[in-house]
Specification:
80 residues; mainly alpha; F1FO ATP Synthase
Length: 80
C-alpha cells in the first residue's frame, strides 16, 4: 500500500473512532445528568450548565481530531 492509501485509512480511523468516543461519552454523560436531576431536582440548573460545558469539551476534542484528519488529507506531509 502506498503512503497516500495509509494516510486515507488513518484519517478514516481518526474520524470514526473520535465520533464513536464522543457519542459514547455524551450518552453516558446525558444518562448521569438525568439520574442526578431525578435525585435532586433543585440542582437541575447547575447540573445542566455543567452538562453543556462538558458536552462542548467532548465535541471540541472530536473536532480537533477531524481538523487533524483534514490536515493530513489535504496538506499531506507524507505524499511525495
Amino acid at each position: 500500500m502506498s503512503n497516500v492509501a495509509l494516510v486515507a485509512l488513518a484519517c478514516g480511523l481518526i474520524i470514526g473512532l473520535g465520533a464513536l468516543g464522543a457519542c459514547i461519552g455524551i450518552g453516558i454523560m446525558g444518562g448521569k445528568f438525568i439520574e442526578a436531576a431525578a435525585r435532586q431536582p433543585e440542582l437541575i440548573n447547575t447540573l445542566q450548565t455543567n452538562m453543556f460545558l462538558l458536552a462542548g469539551l467532548i465535541d471540541a476534542a472530536f473536532l480537533i481530531g477531524v481538523g487533524l484528519a483534514m490536515m493530513f488529507t489535504f496538506a499531506n506531509p507524507f505524499a511525495g
